[in-house]
Protein 1
Amino acid sequence: MADINFNYKEGEAFPPAQIVSISPGFTDTQIIVTKPNWITITQDRPNNKIRVSLNNRVNDLPEGVRNFTLLIYEREIIEFGIPPDPYIYANILINTYTVQVNYTKRKPTTVNPNKLDFYHMIGNSTLPAAQGLGITSEDSYTISRDQPWISISRVSGTGNTNVIIGVNVQALVPGTYNGNVRVQDSLTTFTIPVSLVVDGELGTEDFLFATPSEIRLEHTRYGFLSSPRSVSVNASGSFSIEATSSWMNVSRSSGNQNTLSFDVELNDNVNALGIGVFVSEVVLVLGSITKKVKVEVDITPFIEDLFDPDKLYFTDDENTIRLVSSAEKTQLSVIVKASNQNQSYRFKYGIPFFKGISRTRVGGEIRKIIGKLPKNDLGELISKAYIPYTPSFTDLDITENKIFSDEILRGVPLKDIRFIKGITPPDAKLTNLPEKIYITKKGILSFSFLEQNSASPETITISGAIEKTISVQLERNDLYSVLIPLSDLEGLSTGDEFTMSVSGVETNIQIKPLGIDHCIVFWENIWGCWDTFECTGQIRSRNKYSYTSDEYRLNRNSLIKEILEIDTIGEFTIDTGWVYSQEEVRYLESMFISRNIWLLIDGRFIQVNTKNSSFDPYLTRRFKKSFKLTFEKTIR
């Protein structure tokens, strides 16, 4: 028996790859494998393994058993030459493996007969008998027709089967009709011509036929209108067409002698019907003859909770779209179209159904589209209210469609759904800032909030130890930010307390003593807005050094290591100074998850990453805590 064995039948999945060991003398030499082109080799040098598998070229081989030997060589340097060929190599055989492949061709699909003929005499009460189409196959296949008067008993199959082919002669005038039935497997398409001869003469009496006599439509309330359905008419003279309900339209109001067709489609009035099954008729009249086409529409709700265009959504909430369906081989498809800073983005979800339910969550990609806050949004450090960013206006096309085609069964379009970063806050504040904070006269206060009472803020009011009103003028937006350097407020002393209020959002401030050093930490919080914390303890900075190196072989016995690049990494260790409340501790801890942090030291902004993941209190006195923060510069 061979070392490696494959059994493969054309059209089936390739057998699993097989892994064998190799025995090179060195860890960094080249491995060469001689093999036929229908074998694929993947090397795993760290584990001294190779992976042997079949590829598509095996289908070009004749049926039978193939035996060959896999030869595995190690390419070694045997001596040094003269540039441009500084090395002379030899291929050293290190392993051999015998391989056997048993390849079987799939038997071709056959269809019998290769032609179907039908005959009907007008006036004969016996309709043409249906005929069988025998299919012999080792593959799965589909069956289709290209004429409405041809009927087929099934549209797909696997293995051997007999498909019943019939014809519908109703409403057909004398003549010869030709169509096709197609059988398609993964390799071949068979076209079986179908011929129908309708013989005889029409009588002198008027007649009117309509096919089909019933139409069933499905509609998702407030969703896309379903495709029109066609009705074929055969008449002896002029006739009228009328839709009896206002929620459907017909494409024409009358017709003439001979055969024609018209479309029946839903209109927007169908949404007023509610949920359920509703029945109406299309009436055709020729003289004293009346024909009715029954139209039934099944109206269903699409998803349990639609997004509301009048509501603001948060990207990190459970913004779940859920769809229930009893259809087969369909999926929930959500196309999301969003824009930010004059850039348009489009992405798509496709989620199959599990036990009739499909769901997906929207928000993560929109957070990425909104992106990081640029530092220059802070602008000049003066007392102000400003707009940190505008929401992402997002369009959602929510549909149920076939998995293997673009056919849409139902859907709902949603326009201008507004998203901002974060989760739904417990109140109007878009910050973890405590109700009361302690900062020095050199501190900077920053916080953000949601729009209140559908109005933009007009004033920032300061009351308490000092009284001041700052006028602001802003366009309407869903969120706003406030930035107040306390150096703008004259007459402050240690121990002073005052309240800052804007649009009903209040923060209480108490002035604490100055410290050894001074630093303001700015970070982008989960809502995409700037928060700040003032550090009054000692600031220490230092540079660390790292390097990037590479190794190459001078000869088979010598390895050379060279330094390619030296990195200088700036690091800051900053003591927070006294932190007076546990709420301030939790507020500062929220910085650790931010990926957009800046330090303001001596009037200069420095972008950094935090190296802290939790607090380690190193000094406690009278319940006042101080912490050590470590940052690393992002730009080296």
Protein 2
Amino acid sequence: MEKKEKNHIIPPSSLNEDDKKHKLILRQMETLGKLGHWEVDFVNQTLHWSEGVFHILEMDPSAMPVDLEKGFLSVHPDDRERAVKHMQDVLETGIKYDLECRLITTSGKNIFVHSLADVIRGKNNEPLQIVGIFQDITEQREAYQNLLQKELRLSTILNSEPECVKVVSPEGILIEMNPAGLQMIEADHPEDALGQKVENLVFPEDLVFYQSLHKNALQGIQSSARFRIIGLKGTKRWMESTAVPLTNQLGEITSVLSVTRDISEKVIAEENFIRIKKNQEALINGTSDLIWSLDSNYRLIAANQAFLDVMGFLLGTIAKEGDSVLILNQGEAFYEKWKGYYERGLSGETFKTYERFLSPITGKEEHREVSFNPIRNTNQEITSLACFSKDITDLMLKRMELVSSERRYRALVENGVDVIAILNAEGFAKYVSPSITKVLGYSEKEAMNMNLFDILHPDDVPKIKDRLEEVVTLPEGNSLPSHHFRVKHQNGSWRWMESTITNLMDDESIGGIVDNFHDVTERVVQITAIQTQNEKLKAIAWTQSHVVRNPLAKLMGIVDLIKTGTLSPSEEKRSLDHLIESAKELDEIIQDIVLKSQRVIVP
């Protein structure tokens, strides 16, 4: 643009009072609205600014007039080309002048202005003047940008929010929903869900809860509810939703905003917790054991039904939480004993006691193991005491039976004729019963310090070694047949033993070869004597059998001769005489055998 000397496009005229008033009003309007008007004379190439323009550009109005060059330089460098192009288009094509651009004030501050102008043309449509007005819209522009930034931040927050955020119309139609919400209801695209009724997703049984939530919001009430939904692909979820009303500028409720989160895992955890709690209560209340806790003032905090029953029986009334666990009507000794227990526990001591008493309910003797455990808070301060009374009556009865059984067993072992020993594979003793003293004369201590082979007869050593090696190959609990061997008595004599050995090497409580043996010396001696007698009798029988055969043969021959009936009376008489002689001879032989046998058999 060329710089011209003329200052005004329209020469100033004489001002009357009305003109002054109008000019004052115009100045006030420009100041209040941050407005300014301008005029460009294309014929004379001049520029005119009102006072409002000078104020907007932080210039002194006394600087009038200004030239086109100065006006052009007030435009921001990045917007100058666009401003020139717009002016050319207005002048050449006849479009309306409507431009937003940035100006630079004298202090260097950037401002945004919105300018409107009309072109005054000549007879040949040539542009003569352009008269316009612009307004400082910096604050509006900044407010708009701030609003855009807020909307962008809000949109970013909603889109990244892991919970479902949705806007629903009063009729229950889904208007907006963030991506997390679309994912929850299994919508692949927004159009799959927007415009649809939200109620269609809700479980029929839970519809009343959702409808109440929506209704409250439309009445201006914030509320929350739980309900189940079925996603578009069939997945069932538990949801927890909080709904608030959305209003317009007039305060009218136009829609409902709700934030909903998937609580399926939480509900499952809650259901599991409730189930576990009920199971625990059933277990705790189903036991005869007593469980209770008390505070530092000896007041009952919690207890199972078994304890409440006992405490109620002792008090003579229904026991409840908050009652004192110190019972006075059972005597001073009872009171002081249990108070002492509680004081020890509340002082920080963990301990057990064993109580034996007659049950006030059943009248039977009971044995109980009572545990006291202090309960501490996060600061390790003792706040209460947990107590557990376990019924060990059956255990104690069995224990007493076991003690009696052990005593009977020990009496049998100590006073019996059998010796029980536990050996390792090398013959060393891990245990020897007290009856060893009766059988072999050794004390238990002496026997424990000896090896079996130290007192074993040399002729029996190989066989016993083989038996020990063989028995450990048997399955656990199996035994070898009984066997006889000789052992040296403490007095130096040899005694015969009958032994049965059993493999219990892998038994944790035994861990060895169990040898059960007893003294059979007298029996062995008797058997040996009988065997010797039998041998002598065999010799006598064999010798005398030949002596018996001669008279026996004679008898049989004479009998056969008489039976023929061919003998004369005299011959028959002689035969009978011979028969009598042979019988006497046989009788003498038999008497001799008897005498010899009597000498062999020892009475």
Protein 3
Amino acid sequence: MFQSLVCLYYLLHATCQADPPQESVLKLYKNISKNSPLKIRGTSATFHEGAVSWTIFGALQEKGKLHVPSSNWSVGQANYEVLVVNEPISDTLILPYADPVSNTAKNDHLKIRATQGEYEPASFVIRSGNEPLQNVHVAISQLKRDNSSDEITANNIDIRVVKCWYQSSDSIHRGVGKGKCLTPELLLHDANIIRVDFDHQVNLVRSLDKLRDADQLKPFTVSERMNQQIWLTVHIPENAIPGNYQGEIIIGFSIKGEYKQTKLKLFVEVLPFKLVDSPIEYVLFYMGWLKPPDYIGLDARGKTSNQMLNDFKDMKAHGLTNIAIDHQYKTKKSGQPDLDNLIPVMLLMREAGFNTSRYLYVDWKVSQYDNPIAYRNKIQGLHDIALANGFTELFVYHLDERNLDTILGAKQSLEITHSLGVKNFVATKPEFSNSLKGLLDIAILDRAKKGAAYKASSQGIIPWAYGTPQAGEEKPCAYRDVYGIKLWLDGFEGVCNYAYQTGVLGWDDWSDQKWRPHNMVYPTLDSPITTLQWEGFREGIDDMKYAATLLSLKHDSVNMMTAQDRKIFFTKILENDLPRNPTELRELIIKKLLSNYSR
């Protein structure tokens, strides 16, 4: 069944159909597979090593910058080295063959500060010398609070390897970027589900028809003269007692059969205050359609209830407040809307922990908007289901990114929605706001356009943001910076970026000649695999929560202020100009909160 889905994938994506591989590409495939039998489909080729299949991606694109070990590798005879990453959320790449390693320092400890319930990252790099490090394993002790028996157990700390692999561009738009590039992105428990061939500059994905990550970190190898970044996510329990905790990170491995071990200290400060909810609504478009339990697929569209629930839980854990869920709209033989398949999706949202009162309905085709009677029946049916399932507000997505004449040509459908007590939202241009007053309730606007939020809010339209960067680029700090506190300071009240996942086979970055998959996470047959950009997005959301916590001590209605007033007010509270670095800004906010707490 899975193979038939892959075949369908290539039939649907005619722009990616390639001519039979040139001799050079075919030779490359044979070299990688060691002349094993190949199944070549469009932009990929699959071969077997015993019972395990490997699918090669990236061979049809010309090589980018070469990545080879330095001839004067600084670790050398020292056998190994461990460096601490200064800024885990950074757009400075830590690549396998980098020497020296940027954004790192020699240190014997990692330190984080976080509040109850918060997820906070830390990172370090294991470097090999002239010999590979075999059977590498990383373990963490319990974290003990100073002068107390209180502890944070090790199962609250997730450990993963950062996998660097090849992508078709550094931009979501392939024609804009710099071509094939090596980039750190995936956060894996099992480093071996992806092989990266640095010589041929391709990725190999293991057993696509069975693809799952491990539940916890598995032993791995660091080849000679190579860097391997390790990622920690510490989840502070809701009931953790504030104070200073410490534990040990134990790193063990073998060099030429001899076992060695080194350690890092981990210091965790649990702050003595709780974060308030963000005044910003954080949303991503979700393209998944619910499929039967026996469905097998790794696409953004088809999801079993288990896959969808795990996606929703992941979004909730990463700070989203809502999800704009696409619906595969159909009608019954009678012509009436068939909306029964919405109910299990709503229930899965609730099971994942989303308690929002708003349901954000997306039918990308905006089916029947040009048929007033049918559209009224559709909207009424949607409203009834939303109310019956605990949602008090229904927002319906309209014609995406259309010109003003097209939107106004569909004015009647917007008015029908309002007449039924339902609201409209859509991605549009800020300069259309004056014409859309009274028709549109939420405008999703280009994040990069100055004054965009004001143009909408001055017409009574709630301004949300998207794009710049669109979801899926390997730029964790950019997401933190653009969609954190600055979003609120620029006058926005929400974000609805595209998308959580896209693509019929999201693991293939070469499946479309124009667009890369918009992946904040990557699909498996079970739980999604997170990425550096997704962790950066969460940090931006947490930054906004820290700011909101400080603002809540000084002002009752932070979203009632204009963008100019927000900046003046926030700068006054901080008694400082706004730092450019998000980490420095958060530290300044924490300092102010601790000062208030100690009074």
